[in-house]
Amino acid sequence: xxxxxxxxxxxxxxxxxxxxxxxxxxxxxxxxxxxxxxxxxxxxxxxxxxxxxxxxxxxxx
Length: 61
Known about the structure:
By secondary structure, the chain is mainly alpha-helical. It contains two helices and no strands.
């Protein structure tokens, strides 16, 4: 694989990781923020996003 193809694969993996993390954070954090009416919803969303990022990165290897 050429250097350009390797960079394209790494870029694609990074974008997938970023999208999964963002969707997890906003998908969990925003509804919990509305329901709990406190910043704890975003804290829980952040923890879930870190877990999703870890699992996604592990799966992309």
